[in-house]
Amino acid sequence: DRRGAGRPMRMRDGSPGQRALFAALAAFGALGLAITAADTFDRVGRTANPGFLLDYLAVAPTSREAADAGLRGGGRILRINGEPIGPEVHARMAPPGLRCTIGATNTIDFVHRSGEQRSVTLAVRPWTWADVLFAEGATDLIGVLFWAVALTGFALRPYETGSWALLALGTFAGGTLMTMLIPLDDAHWWSAVYFLIAVGVVV
Fold it and tell me: I want to staple 67 with a disulfide (CB 3.0 to 4.6 A). Which of 2, 14, 61, 170 is the partner?
């Protein structure tokens, strides 16, 4: 029977192995979305937001109030509460000298992107939904879009070589972006494993 010859493949036309691989990649992306959603719900109203985030020596605000206080645009960190900060500090580590008790304050000295040296004092307060959207909304959204575009592209042209490549890239790049700001610590071991797998494939 050659009635189907020459027509594009459909999702149901794949072999059991192909469909299983597609399901695994789709599930990996969905797991990343679930992890970041669970982490967000766990933080909002419960854990402390010091008002800034470090990524090695780069500092950026994690709330609109911190941005308005002088941290907008970020810069290069020098000290936190008088403690010098070296390049070994990463976004997933608690930097030396940082106070994390809600109601406490942290004074950070940094060189703004404009070249001006600034000192800003920020209050520690619980994470809010507005903070999450300000600090992480764009990164999470791009990650979700990577994954969604990859799924859509595969659904339109299933099981083709280019569709597999797009699906793999979109899934692992999207998963990396969705979980890149979750701490690497004992309390988040599942997200740490996920992130390391995703970034390992991408890199």
Answer: 61
